[in-house]
Fold each of these.
Amino acid sequence: MWNGRFIAQGLVQLFMQFPKEIFNIANPIAFIAVGLLINLLVRRKIREVNPIYLLLTYCTMFYFLPDFERAVLWLSGSFNYLWMPLIYLGYF
């Protein structure tokens, strides 16, 4: 079936082939990268990223993502709701 989650589900299938430890290492890196890319989208230069704003971004992500465990910590949810924004923000 082809739908808007094709890439995310493909990544889920790919990561399901490897030990869970690989996902456990890659997922926090993706979370950090999303927060950093959000700040880079606003500031445009890595030198202009304020650590206070970065901390505020991570707190906001933690607070406003609905059902944080399923959206960020769960393998399938993280590829749909964390890794796809990472890919989208990477284009900017």
Amino acid sequence: MMSVNFFNGNLSYTKFSKEKGGIKESYFKQTKIIGGINHD
């Protein structure tokens, strides 16, 4: 039972990490674009 719970938790954590990483990456790109405009 503990193994199944850990496995499910790990899948959720991995999914969360991927979503979080995607948001962070798009935010970084957006900031980079805005930064480039501001510096011009």
Amino acid sequence: MFYLQVDDFTQAQSCARQLHDYVASAPDLNHLAQAHGLLARTALGLGDSAEAQLHLSRALEIVDNADFPIASWQVYRTAAEIFAKYGDVDRAATYRLRFVETVRRLAQNFEPEDRLHKSLLAVLATRTAQLEAMTSLPSRPA
């Protein structure tokens, strides 16, 4: 979502709420998981940890019980970010690994020369490095 990329969390939250309201009454759990994931990311950006945890738990409940790889990789990335931000390094690492596994599985659906395959692997490299930096322990003073 563009507004997340430019750190306009208020506008991102508004769009995520619209998506949530639109899909909440439909039997579309894939998009509902994505909506909760977006709401979790916007709450994180706005500094509302309780709201972030609430929407993250709702998103994880959906993706952990269904095969929605498009929603899953985004929700797992968000989970890794949230847990890293709040100091739960072990859970952040768990969700970082789930993110990696899911993106790799998606990439395998395409031939190695396909643009989507290359794009997914590029996202994987970039986001994994960011997530690893967030979950790395500070070095000890000598």
Amino acid sequence: MAPPSPLNLPTDSPTAPTHEPSGIKPAPATAAQQQPAASPPEPASPAESASPPDTLESLMIQLGVITGGQLMNDQEDAGYHPAKIGERFHDDRYQVVRKLGEGQFSMVWLAHDQQLDRHVALKIFKSSKFFTDSAEAEIKLLERVSRANPAHPGYGHVAGLLDHFKHQGPNGSHVCLVFEPLGQSLGALIRRHKKKIPEPIVRKIGQQVLLALDYLHRECGIIHIDMKPDNVLIVVEDVEGVIRWDLEHKPKGGYDSKSSIPLSTSSSDPFHLQGQSDHDPIAVKIIDFGSATWVADRRVEGVTTRPYRSPELMLDAPWDQRIDIWSTGCMVSYVPTYQREVQGQIRS
């Protein structure tokens, strides 16, 4: 059986469409449909393999992934939990299946929810007080996002928190967050497809991101602060089917208990997600609330990624939630602007 397939965009088309495809509607961002595709995923080319990760490794919730899945060597300050394939968390509810990647704050694992028979992204924070405090602050923001107003049209375009708990391990107590698995990031899509994303798709993504920001700003009272392509993820239709197909056809080895390096619990393994036509519906969700803050309590510095930084932040002037709108404008205009330049039709 072939896996269900998410969005795929052309990489060799000389021009991008300049009109909206007829009949296209955003896919519901909160429901998955069980529809298998016609063929299995194709292996990535050497060029694609050398580029930053663009599959479930890079698209997991709120993860600053180190490219290639390399672990940090600072053992004294590591504080990671040395999870094993098959290890269970939270009263045996979540069983680790595969490692997805790691960042400065945490490791992310693909896990199976034994209670609901589905796969989830399990984010395990490092155990020091700094990372614990950061995780607990993030939980408060995410809980507000999950409950504020489900009827708002932007609600389904923000990745919500499914569960959270603490886990005691050999390196201390770790805050663990559970999220839904999503598709590749917009940033990964840009890198994979040489930035040639059709403008109707970009407009649709921009519309959904703005709905999500309206929800965050008006209903939740939250400023995201770090809007960029890597923090916008594609919703995969039947992501559970994609994961199960990959696990069945590409099983990976588990934890080497004889290893002298306790953090090398498993090789990071991305899931290669192939796609469908650029005329298919597309839905996205905003992720990563690690830098976010409350509208009414801006005690953090507004440190956005430089290419998307607003004039207020550059000039060290007072700022508010409008910095998210500026960043989104930069992000959305980036792709079509690049297409025009490479086609020799630069427009002001």
